[in-house]
Amino acid sequence: MQIPEFSDVVAAEARIQPYIHRTPVLTSSFINGLAGAELFFKCENFQKAGAFKARGASNAVFGLSDEQAGKGVATHSSGNHGTCLSYAAGRRGIPCTVVMPRTAPQAKKDAVKGYGGRVVECEPSTSSREAVFAQVVAESGAEFVHPYNDPRVIAGQGTCSKELIGQVENLDAVVAPIGGGGMVSGTCLTLSNLAPGVKIYAAEPKQADDACRSFKAGHIIADDAPETVADGLKVPLKELTWHFVRNHVTDILTASEGEIVDAMKLIWKRMKIVMEPSSAVPLATILKNPDLFAGKRVGVIVTGGNVDLEKLPWN
Questions:
Q1: Fewer CB within 10 A of the terminal residue: the chain, N end or C end?
Q2: Could you tell me which CATH class the domain 6-51+150-311 is placed in?
Q3: Tryptophan synthase beta chain-like PALP domain: which residues (predicted)?
Q4: Which CATH number is associated with domain 54-144?
Q5: Mapping DSSP to helix (H, G, I), strand (E, B) and coil, where does residue 272 land?
Q6: What are 184-241's pLDDT values in tens digits?
């Protein structure tokens, strides 16, 4: 599989511009005081379809030839990538099928359907997801757009940090959540070219810390079905994202379930913005490692806001 280059990010930015928001950067003096650092929250929870994945999905969909697009697109996703691929496919007027765990939040299933996508359910494990998906593609011939192990998707995600460093000068570090590693890979791709002095930290739930263990071991370690409140971060690294993580990430930091929920609650209360648990993991790790970020200017990527309001983790 081809490793995307920075020229692909530049091309993606032009391609997807009509279909995405240039999201705002917000700050909180209260949270800065708690962290002992200046934090700049890149709010992809305000993105089209409610998540950063609209970037990669739009780049993949609008980069297809008419012949490819005619057969539609398909993916497997715990939620946001499926929603965003359905959004992009709807903008292009082509079919989209999403294989989703039956345990995925109902809000995310409804969002896929709301954008015109078709949901096919599977068991909540990587092995079941991939088996059901193979059957879907065999039947439809649809173009597979992987949630993260796809050069088109990674290039699209790289446009987020390209915007961020244009909005905030002199960052010392950027912290982003990591599951499969699409956002972190896009961040690595952009920053290694435009701002190589900026440190890149990946933030992960302690209960789904396969990326952290992979980073320490020097090879991919994949968990099949970890349990964490951060439902968007349950998937393992793949070869493309591992390339970027291995070569460009400074460190992978973890947070407990309680720390993630506390950080999510803090942002809801102090910044008045809706974010999902996966998006709170970066702040949780920053607050847990004050010495690492003390006095620094830190970009924090808030990856999405598609939370099930009937199942808030502090209820």
A1: C
A2: alpha beta
A3: 16-304
A4: 3.40.50.1100
A5: coil
A6: 999 999 999 999 999 999 999 999 999 999 999 999 998 877 899 998 898 899 999 9
Q: Which long-range contacts (CB under 8 A, 24 or more apart) does 24-30 make?
A: 25/164, 25/167, 25/168, 26/271, 26/273, 28/270, 28/271, 30/270
Amino acid at 22: R
Burial of 288 (0-12, 13-18, 19+ CB in 10 A): middle
Domain with CATH 3.40.50.1100 in the chain: 6-51+150-311, 54-144
308 in helix, strand or coil?
Answer: coil
Query: Could you give the CA distance from residue 5 to residue 9 in angstroms, rounded to a whole number?
Result: 7
DSSP 95: -
CA–CA gap between residue 155 and residue 82 (Å, rounded): 18
Amino acid in position 159: T
Beta-strand ranges (E) seen in the chain are: 25-26, 38-43, 73-76, 96-101, 118-122, 143-144, 173-177, 199-205, 251-255, 297-302
Beta-bridge mates of residue 200? 174
The two most distant CA atoms of the chain are separated, in Å, by: 55
Which residues does 126 contact at the CB level (< 8 Å), separation at least 6? 222, 224, 225, 235, 236
Neighbours of 130 (CB within 10 A): 12
